[in-house]
Amino acid sequence: MNNWNWDTFFEAFPLVLEGIWITIGLTVACYLFALLFGFVWTFLRRIPIKPINWLVTWVMEFIRSTPPLVQLFFIFYAWPMVPVVGFAMDPFTSAVLGLGLHFSTYIGEVYRSGIDAVDKGQWEASTALNFSTRQKWTKIIIPQAIPPTIPMLGNYLIIMFKEVPLASTIGVVGILQMANNYGAQNWAYLEPLTIVAILFLILSYPSAILIKKLEVKMNTRFDKKAVVNSSSSKGAV
Amino acid sequence: MSEPIVTFQDVHKSFGDVKVLKGIDLEVKPAEKIAIIGPSGSGKTTIIRMLMTLEEPTAGDIIVDGNNLWKMEKNGKTVDANDKHLRAIRGDIGMVFQHFNLFPHMTILENCMTAIIHVKGENKEKAKKHSIEMLEKVGLGDKLDNYPSQLSGGQKQRVAMARALVMRPKVMLFDEVTSALDPELVGEVLEVIRGIAKDGEMAMILVTHEMDFALDVADKVLFLDEGVIAEQGSASQVIEHSKNERLQSFLKRFRS
């Protein structure tokens, strides 16, 4: 067995790094898909018809209760074999669909919690001012519902980033698969996998700190504006 | 006598098995000021919430300026009002809430402007001018760029009044607007309402626990008890000379 070898490290590093764009790209694509589809869940769950509500809740629960890996395998290997509706997709698209769909159920819950947290007096005041249903959502409810959920949404970005290597199992070549390939060819796993760990750490840890800061900012956002405003108005006087 | 702007005809309201209102008949004339008093749970707030379309009556009709609020004609049949119908009539009515319900993500000026721009379609310059005038009227001309979180309860409630007034409703509803305020802030809010009452051709319905204020402002006082209007008349008739025992004991609790 060989020990740690810096030559191997420096040889493997650029190769593993090549996979970073796939890893980041897949994270971003999955995340955007989840953000958008989360809205779809939130909307569907608000339809005030009991059977639909029950069905949507059940489907969301089903998606959340099955492992993302199983869902990936199903979409990539099994879906093309489903009669009539089945069709084959490339690994990247399958991964976006699989991981994106899985996490969209969580994101949908985040949106819902944000909407539920808006005081019902806000709905009543906007009815009293005769806003249309659409205006109530766009002008009054969503601007209040979304900002408090931003830290939670950020957390899901980091969680998804760490789940993305699952996609290597269906052939999406991110940093993990790059490192694995290098290891298999050179029988040296220690250095390339260490590089993978370091890269994940470098990207997740600062993001986590950023989100913490964002959280503090969101909790005090109206007070902040208040401070800025009162000082500027004093200046004007 | 002019036509009433609001008429309640045998209006009932239940929440589940609980009958809150058991047949309300009421006429409000243009510019008339009506105070509704009564013990909590008697259904005072429910009356004005139905007029604001926040609750749907279980039975009966509410007529606003000749239009049936909760019912409409469709293919010659009378059916439940849809949102479009409600929206068309609701514009005549404005409301001030117990808990202000200002929009926390907007400045004071934006709170006032947003509905006249987006609902009434006024241009931004005019909307701004009217809003500033109204905010000056309620004594908050120097707080335009502040956010609601920076204001005292009394100031918030005055903003809420300016926001409702600038829409120029024909009927304005006040739902216990001083109940959530610290005692020392009640005066400033009542003062503003007095001002509105004096210069207004606007009808007002006030649900209130401020008896002296009701006596002072209202043309007519209704005493609501157990879901019915138990006593009504001029403010002095009802508050000072009524023989109704339940009203007497209700008033005693406020006078002591």
UniProtKB/TrEMBL annotation, chain A:
Keywords assigned by UniProt, alphabetized: Amino-acid transport, Cell membrane, Membrane, Transmembrane, Transmembrane helix, Transport
CDD domains referenced in this protein's UniProt entry, alphabetically: TM_PBP2
InterPro entries with a match to the protein in the record: AA_ABC_transptr_permease_3TM, ArtM/GltK/GlnP/TcyL/YhdX-like, Ectoine_EhuD, MetI-like, MetI-like_sf
GO CC list: ATP-binding cassette (ABC) transporter complex
Location in or out of the cell: Cell membrane
GO biological process, one term: amino acid transport
Pfam families from the UniProt entry: BPD_transp_1
Lineage top rank: taxon: Bacteria
Family: Belongs to the binding-protein-dependent transport system permease family.
Protein name: Ectoine/hydroxyectoine ABC transporter permease subunit EhuD
Native source organism of the sequence: Virgibacillus profundi
TrEMBL record, chain B:
Domain ABC transporter: from-to ranges: 6-251
Keyword set, alphabetical order: Amino-acid transport, ATP-binding, Cell membrane, Membrane, Nucleotide-binding, Transport
Cited NCBIfam families: ectoine_ehuA
Stretch forming the signal peptide: none
Protein name stated in the entry: Ectoine/hydroxyectoine ABC transporter ATP-binding protein EhuA
Membrane topology category: Peripheral membrane protein
Gene Ontology MF terms: ABC-type amino acid transporter activity; ATP binding; ATP hydrolysis activity
Keyword Cell membrane: yes
Subcellular location: Cell membrane
Superkingdom: Bacteria
Family recorded in the similarity comment: Belongs to the ABC transporter superfamily.
